[in-house]
Write a structure and sequence with these properties.
This protein has a 5-stranded parallel β-sheet, with helices on both faces. With 197 residues, the protein is of the alpha/beta class. It is globular. The chain contains 10 helices and 5 strands.
């Protein structure tokens, strides 16, 4: 089974790149989806998070409220959150990789902003970073998530700088202001066809 890691900061265009991979027959494991599932169903993780960030991250029903958790984390405690959550995500993703391989999957993509620092990159044959200019990413996540500029900026600035992704990736997909969505899709298609050849 060939495993391609897709990483890069929020708002850069990872979803578009992943859709291209899906069109080439790849299965996708989304680490963000795994993380959100764990937030709702893993009691042990909930205990660890309330221990670190306090009971006020819970809603009236005693479940983790993602907005409250985000307010407790950004901008200064992201490393602390990651240190708690990454081990849980890695164990779940590892199980998903084994299941996919057992089911005969030939190409699998792991989508994770923290692919490198979480240790998930160690399973990847290729790590591809999707990058875009900071101001463009801020605009995109404001539109996508319906958030104000100050919050979007805090989220973007809490993430690793572009140089980190360049240094730790095998390939880079640049998604600039000049690229139409179609241009970027074509660029992604050519890269993934080369990787899978």
């Amino acid at each position: 089974m060939k495993i391609i890691g897709i990483t890069g900061p929020t708002g850069a265009g990872k979803t578009t790149a992943l859709n291209v991979l899906r069109s080439l027959g790849a299965e996708v494991v989304d680490a963000d989806v795994v993380y959100h599932e764990l937030l709702t169903e893993c009691e042990e993780l909930k205990t660890d998070l309330t221990g670190a960030f306090g009971e006020n991250i819970l809603d009236g029903a005693g479940k983790i409220d993602r907005k409250r958790l985000a307010q407790a984390v950004y901008p200064n405690r992201l490393e602390e959150l990651n240190a708690i959550t990454h081990p849980y995500v890695v164990v779940r993703v590892e199980a998903m990789l084994s299941a996919a391989e057992g089911a005969g999957c030939s190409v699998l993509a792991i989508d994770a902003i923290a692919l490198i620092e979480s240790g998930l990159a160690r399973w990847c044959d290729e790590v591809v970073a999707v990058l875009a200019p900071k101001e463009l990413r801020i605009k995109r996540i404001m539109e996508r998530d319906g958030i104000d500029e100050a919050y979007a900026r805090r989220r973007v600035e809490a993430q690793k700088p572009e140089g980190f992704f360049r240094e730790h990736s095998d390939c880079i997909l640049e998604n600039t202001e000049k690229d139409t969505p179609e241009d970027f899709e074509q660029q992604a298609l050519e890269l993934f066809q080369k990787i899978l050849a």
